[in-house]
Amino acid sequence: MSVRKLKPITPGQRFRVVNSFDTITTDKPERSLIAPKKNSGGRNSQGKMTMRYTGGGHKQKYRIIDFKRAKDGVPATVKTIEYDPNRSAFISLLFYADGAKTYIIAQNGLQVGQTVVSGADSAPEIGNALPLSKIPLGTVISCIELRPGQGAVIARSAGTFAQLMARDGKYATIKMPSGETRLILLTCTATIGAVSNSDHQLIVSGKAGRSRWLGRRPRTRPVAMNPVDHPMGGGEGRSSGGHPRSRKGIPAKGYRTRSKVNPSNKYIVERRKK
Question: Where would I find the Large ribosomal subunit protein uL2 C-terminal domain in this sequence (predicted)?
Answer without folding.
Answer: 124-251
